[in-house]
Amino acid sequence: MSEGHMVEQARHERSFSSLSDDSEEARARYLYRQWVGLGLTDVHLSNHTVLLSLPGSTPNTITDKSSRQCFLPDGTPCDQREPNDLPKQRFSYAAYSAAGSLQGEVVDVQYASVDVLRRTRERLNITNHIAVVKLGQLPLLYKLSLLSELGFGGVLLYIDPCDAPPGSHIWHQAFRVTLNPGGNPTTAGMSREARGSLTSLLVQPISAFLAKTLLSSPITGQGESCTPLAMPPNAERKKITLTVGSQLSSKKIYNVVGYLKGKRNPDRYVLVGSRHDNDQGGGASAIMNQLIAALTEQTKLGWVPDRTTVFCSWGGSALGNIGSYEWGKDNSVVLQSSAVAYVSLNSPVRGTETLRATASPTLLQLTSDIQRRQLLSCIRGGNCPGPNVSSLQLPGDVGFFANQLAVPTLEFAFEQTKAEETTSFLSEAQFSAESPETLDPLFKFHETIAKMTAEAILRLINDPVLPFYPLDIALDVQNKLKDKSAMSAALLSSASSLRDHAAFFQSETMRPANDPKERDPSHVRMLNDVLRDLEKSFIIPQPPPGVYRNLLYSLPGKTSQFSILRFSQEALLCSNVANKAVKHVSADQEGLCDSTVNQSLFLILRAIRSAERLVCFGLDLFENYPNDTV
Predict the structure, then answer these.
(1) pTM value surpassing 0.70
(2) N or C: which end of the chain has fewer CB within 10 A?
(3) pLDDT, tens only, 228-242
């Protein structure tokens, strides 16, 4: 892949962004024509009629009752709004928030952690008040579920400048969020009292400048001297009126899906996904087009992949990954047996400071190897980022494939970020996108992501035995169970047994069994199915809001642990918070907490035992046919 090709694809993306008809249908049809022109012969354009939450005809407002000053979400006084500012101000809203007006006092709850909420509830009557909440540290949907349970009526969201990457200039920027966990929010799943929203709360994103004003917070510094925004202890809480006017509308969203058929295993799919939201940049379409061009060019020279590559460009991603969920549900029967992996191009260049590789544990080794080779290449050229590989849960369309199908996933992306402990989940904020040229004028970073992603795709579609490593799953499980004092003997024993069997499965002893030249093709195919299906053992039925169903993905934190354990350990605090009459923990509450923790531990134990049985099935597969050769 050459830099010239990337610049050429970027030029196509610029024309893509400047279509006279800026509808999603027009963008999807433009992509369809591009993919066919690049050599894909099996391309499909599909649509789904879904319920979208769109901004109202006028911007949402926040009015200080004492001064009677009305503010727009970015902090601009309502009477100083420029006519050209209307699209920018309307962009700042919470999709699927409740609509209406609410009067109440602002309450500073910082990141809305359970401990802060407990202390706030003990000293204040917060019913129908308006929480001022920082994004970060915890999933937004989890925070909102706690705030709603406590009786808050509204929520103002902002990003603390101390958490933002250097040079991001977010003081006067408002943003958009979505409260949709994924897919089409049908009216049947919506609460009647919330008038069609996904929450009873009125939710509105605001700028850090407006948050500082409402909290009467002192001026903060920058960089190392930055002081986080907070309401002073003795400050009088402002009374405000929050007005939210978002509207629900049934509209069509469009997906573009193209197939590059494999020869030996055409019914095994490696999915590559990007998005075509017009207000979300990152050059994903340029990278996708270059990948398609490179692979179709090879097929013209006679190369045929082993497995089928499915290229996907999703619509409706910004409002809750709607296109990917709807297409995935429509094709779920086929995908359950055919999908092998999902390679994400959700927002590949959202900064230029840090190269972050994220993958489920099954693909950590492949992802690390690719990044290591990139770093070696970079060392020769200078200005190298450090290695950064994790299994943190990802935003974007990868969610359906990780949670519903439980296929291994990976993503390479450049970011402009600080320590992930504080900045994680800041990506839930959607800003009006910069053009790819602004972030990466020479498209060097896009070219790097394209090369790394292409290498991953080629391994996934060509390797006779899939480059999946069950031992990495077993080691990840043991790492998440480090606090042995809280774990049962059965749980620790099962985790150890899974590690031993997975280690043997990957050992030198079993290498001949993993060598396709020495195995019957049908057995190799069965082996690949075992490797592919391991993550399915780790799906749980009802995780906390905003948390992946797939246990193998982590939330950020100083210590690695299963996400459901982290939240079940908060159950006692939650029950204390939710009951304003309780000053001390009762025996019933302790029992509830123990029950919640035990249920979480049971789910983890069941997942580990299920995974071990699958690994043992893979071992038996070769022990039963020890001498078969091709």
Answers:
(1) yes
(2) C
(3) 999 998 889 999 999
